[in-house]
Design brief:
InterPro entries: Ferritin-like, Ferritin-like_SF, tRNA-Hydrxlase_MiaE. One of its GO terms (molecular function) is tRNA 2-(methylsulfanyl)-N(6)-isopentenyladenosine(37) hydroxylase activity. One of its GO terms (biological process) is tRNA modification. It holds the Pfam family MiaE. This is tRNA-(Ms[2]io[6]A)-hydroxylase. By secondary structure, this protein is mostly helical. The chain has a single domain, classed as Ferritin (Up-down Bundle). The protein is about 75% helix and about 0% strand. It has helices at about 10-20, 20-45, 50-75, 85-90, 100-130, 135-160, 165-180.
Length: about 190
């Protein structure tokens, strides 16, 4: 369903489980960034009322997810700590050229967001199926559904605002590029890396 061209090596779950504190910290920061992305779309493209309405809801949802992850950190006596650079996202954001029309910029940002949500969904599924901590397994199973919905939301908006055939080609090209990135990732205790 997610269209990912290169699935995460299932052994990533072993790395994640051995470093679950780091996964939770990274996950908390990912939720903050997701809320920030939705906020940024509102600020950058306020003329798209339907987009604004959905992004307002998404900001609330992402912040509620941050709160849930932060509560897991507190329950485990783990401090949130500083954000770390997300190597995956930094590499991904180099795919589309800068500039272009406002519509092109919007479509590119929506496609990036869709792919990040798709990869998060896939990783949450792996965590939900592979970690021994049943409380966290259920936690990630529940969040996996939200990530799938976010992926669909962003991809549908890209297809709404851009020409469908062109957007689908860009989406497929981005998926191919992401698969190349993923060949060098999946060895660290981060949600995307």
């Amino acid at each position: 369903m997610l269209g990912l061209k290169l699935p995460t090596d299932p052994r990533w779950v072993n790395i994640a489980e051995k470093n679950i504190d780091e996964i939770l910290i990274d996950h908390a920061h990912c939720e903050l960034k997701a809320a920030s992305t939705a906020n940024s779309l509102i600020m950058s493209f306020p003329e798209y009322s339907e987009l604004v309405t959905e992004m307002v809801s998404l900001v609330k949802e992402e912040m509620s997810h941050f709160k849930l992850v932060h509560e897991k950190l507190l329950a485990r006596n783990i401090k949130l700590g500083q954000d770390r650079k997300d190597l995956y996202v930094n590499k991904l954001l180099k795919f589309f050229p800068k500039g272009g029309s406002r519509t092109t910029q919007l479509v590119h940002r929506l496609l990036y967001a869709a792919l990040i949500e798709a990869r998060s969904c896939e990783r949450f599924r792996l965590l939900s199926e592979g970690i021994k901590d049943q409380e966290l397994a259920k936690f990630y199973r529940d969040l996996m559904v939200s990530e799938a919905n976010h992926y669909v939301l962003f991809l549908n908006f890209a297809r709404t605002f851009g020409e469908r055939k062109e957007v689908d080609k860009k989406w497929n090209d981005l998926l191919e590029f992401e698969a190349e990135i993923m060949k060098d990732l999946g060895t660290t205790e981060t949600i995307h890396g």
